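Hi R.,

As promised on Friday, here is the backbone we talked about, encoded as structure tokens. Could you run it through your design pipeline when you get a chance and send me back a sequence?
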């Protein structure tokens, strides 16, 4: 459709369709909604102080000697949930761009370029998302792999 209208696919919006900005906004709202729900259900104010202490981190520490960003309490962090998000490549791309561009994050080298392309069909990306204690919203994102398709071989 984009070619028929002499437009690039990244700026073309079909009649009645979402713009890229609207898609990114929807992806961001989805992420924030899921993270807030998980953070609230696992780290409620009624939980013990110990449980609250391990659910969310206090601050990010940058360790230049290892070129790793870690949280102050990473050793004590508990895994709150595993989430499998399945969608079309456009939404996944906008979700990953939000994590990379709008949040403090650590992605594998070359990820920005890889995200500019569509994920292979059934490609997997694995993220670990740390939450802010106060808002239960994403504070830091660590990407372990991006668009992995080894399961197809």
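Update: got your reply. Pasting your designed sequence below so it's all in one thread:
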């Amino acid at each position: 459709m984009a070619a028929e209208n002499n437009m690039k696919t990244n700026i073309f919006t079909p009649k009645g369709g979402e713009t890229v900005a609207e898609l990114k906004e929807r992806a961001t709202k989805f992420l924030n909604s899921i993270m807030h729900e998980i953070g609230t259900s696992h780290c409620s104010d009624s939980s013990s102080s110990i449980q609250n202490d391990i659910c969310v981190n206090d601050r990010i520490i940058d360790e230049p000697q290892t070129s790793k960003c870690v949280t102050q309490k990473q050793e004590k962090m508990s895994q709150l949930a595993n989430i499998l998000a399945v969608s079309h490549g456009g939404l996944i791309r906008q979700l990953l761009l939000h994590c990379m561009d709008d949040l403090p994050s650590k992605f594998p080298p070359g990820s920005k370029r890889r995200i500019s392309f569509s994920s292979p069909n059934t490609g997997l990306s694995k993220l670990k998302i740390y939450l802010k204690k106060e808002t239960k919203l994403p504070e830091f994102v660590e990407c372990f792999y991006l668009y992995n398709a080894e399961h197809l071989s």
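One thing I noticed while checking it: The helical segments are 20-42, 49-55, 89-102, 111-115.

Thanks again,
M.
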